[in-house]
Design a protein that fits this description.
Blueprint lengths: L2 E11 L8 E8 L2 E6 L5 E7 L4 E4 L1 E3 L7 H4 L4 H4 L3 E6 L33 H11 L4 E4 L1 E2 H8 L9 H16 L4 E5 L10 H14 L2 E5 L7 H15 L3 E3 L13 H12 L4 E5 L5 E4 L11 E6 L10 H8 L3 H8 L2 E5 L4 H9 L3 E3 L13 H16 L5 H8 L1 H7 L15 E4 L20 E6 L2 E5 L2 E2 L18
Parallel strand pairs: 1-4, 1-5, 6-7, 7-8, 9-10, 10-11, 11-12, 12-13, 13-17
Antiparallel strand pairs: 1-2, 2-3, 5-18, 14-16, 15-16, 18-19, 19-20, 20-21
Helix pairs in contact: 4-5, 5-6, 6-7, 7-8, 9-10, 12-13
The structure holds zinc ion (ZN) and copper (II) ion.
The site of zinc ion (ZN) has 5 residues, from loops.
Length: 484
């Protein structure tokens, strides 16, 4: 080869597999990485002098709720500005497809967007819509168990019948044929909490046939977390499918300090079955406002409220005081609403983040007017704060948790590593300067130190902002490749 589209010169290349950086030139042509060597004599339309910056595979956000956002706002700035080149949507049991809404939008599907946005009765229609929107990042999708329940059940506060399970399985199979990565569940939410283990195990059965994964927002992340883990593992075994525990945490004051025990139990189970997990680098969670999580010892900030939009940004304690009621009563009056719960212990979060099997996922909520800062900050925060400044892990290790490990676990073929022949999803960043700037009080802010981002070989972002190139596409399931 004598020429290529883009030549990146003298970068500290981190391959995404955990190996230390090597000084390399990298050539890109037709959306692929075509050459990697200490010195390449290639003619290129565009030559980028990396000048010692770090070149990594584009980050994969394994836990997102960007299902409808990628279509509504295809520029995807919250993610692109962090160096993210692929998002996995459809987590926590809620997905934009396949979804046919009969009545009102059940909680927490309302996190994904307004009712009118749900227009994809089949997975294929959603994949087409993603490609039609030309998002700036790639999109791969899970199918939500709660979405399937809502398609086939008249009410969600009961277990599905055999007949309903069959219909849901058929829809899941059709989606897996169309490239879905797997099934997600959100058993903690009231819209799925009445589902029995048997129901979910039956739903997991098609997964093994297709080599797809089961991801779960478990039935409990508080006191009953160990029981919830056992349930998740049993569902994985029933489906002969890998299990991915979403946003692993020890939530609730009574549960603080248990991360060592939880990770120990996960490691033990990992000996005999495929289990992965993801984590976001904050000591606070966010979702819809759940009355069961109201605890006066926990600081809860309201992110939105349909009847009281003026209360967004205030804490539940402030609102309760203003109204002269208990926090629980205030929470009832705010419904439906969203909240940030400062209900995680920082030491637990760090221990989970640092575990070698942990992938990074933002769990960002792109439709919140005052979102949890994880939406704009997750990846630079891991790289800057937790890796460089606090040395919780090495840089190649941090990059692996965002790239190679994630692609292998979820079956994203030819992504997640810097290898010849792989898709040219790349991020060039300054390891000395990279840092999140989004905070709980100013949550919408782009990170520092992300120099350039390429998606499928096209330059999509520079430190001056998005380039306008939107070269992302729908990515269908490839083969998962598990190394424990
Ligand atoms: Zn969740
Ligand atoms: Cu989630």
């Amino acid at each position: 080869m004598q020429s290529c589209d883009t030549l990146i010169r003298k970068a500290a290349v981190m391959d995404g597999g955990g190996a230390p950086a090597e000084w390399m030139d990298v050539g890109i042509a037709d959306g692929r990485i075509v050459a990697i060597a200490p010195s390449l004599a290639l003619h290129a339309d565009s030559v980028v002098e990396a000048d010692g910056l770090t070149l990594a595979p584009g980050f994969i956000d394994v836990h997102t709720h960007d299902d409808l956002y990628v279509i509504r706002r295809p520029e995807m700035l919250p993610k692109l500005s962090q160096g993210v080149t692929t998002v996995i949507v459809g987590n926590c049991g809620i997905s934009a497809s396949p979804a046919t809404l009969g009545g009102a939008l059940p909680d927490p599907m309302n996190l994904l967007g307004e009712r009118e946005g749900f227009r994809y009765g089949t997975f294929a229609e959603y994949a087409d819509a993603v490609n039609g929107a030309r998002p700036a990042v790639n999109v791969a999708a899970l199918v939500g168990h709660t979405a399937l329940r809502n398609n086939h059940m008249d009410r969600l506060d009961r277990a599905a019948t055999d007949n309903e399970i069959e219909k849901m399985q058929a829809q899941l199979r059709e989606s897996l044929e169309g490239g879905a990565l797997g099934l997600s569940s959100g058993l903690a939410y009231l819209s799925a909490n009445a589902a029995t283990t048997e129901e979910v195990a039956a739903m997991a059965r098609p997964l093994g046939e297709y080599g797809a994964v089961y991801t779960t927002h478990m039935r409990s992340e508080t006191e009953a977390i160990r029981e919830a883990m056992e349930e998740s593992f049993a569902i994985g075994r029933a489906g002969r499918a890998p299990v991915i525990v979403s946003h692993l945490k020890c939530a609730g004051v009574a549960n603080w300090g248990r991360s060592g025990e939880v990770l120990g139990a996960l490691d033990e189970a990992r000996v005999s079955q495929q289990i992965g997990f993801d984590c976001y680098p904050y000591a606070a969670g966010s979702s819809t406002l759940d009355l069961r999580q109201v605890d006066e010892r926990v600081r809860i900030a309201i992110t939105w409220s349909t009847p009281h939009s003026e209360m967004a940004g205030k804490t539940l304690a402030e609102i309760a005081q203003e109204w002269g009621v208990t926090q629980l009563e205030a929470a009832k009056r705010l419904q439906p609403a969203g909240a940030i719960y400062h209900s995680i212990d920082e030491a637990d979060m760090r221990r989970i983040l640092a575990h070698p099997a942990t992938m990074i996922g933002s769990d960002g909520l792109p439709n919140d007017p005052r979102p949890h800062p994880r939406l704009w900050g997750t990846f630079p925060r891991v790289l800057g704060r937790y890796c460089r400044d606090e040395k919780l892990m090495t840089l190649p290790e941090a990059v692996r948790k965002m790239t190679g490990l994630s692609a292998q676990r979820f079956g994203l073929a030819q992504r997640g590593l810097i290898r010849e022949g792989f898709h040219a999803d790349l991020v060039l960043f300054d390891a000395k300067r990279v840092m999140d700037t989004a905070t709980f009080s100013e949550p919408v802010a782009t990170a520092k130190g992300i120099s350039r981002v390429w998606v499928n070989g096209e330059l999509a972002y520079t430190e001056a902002g998005a380039t306008g190139s939107r070269a992302g596409r729908f990515v269908a399931r490839g083969k998962t490749d598990w190394v424990q």
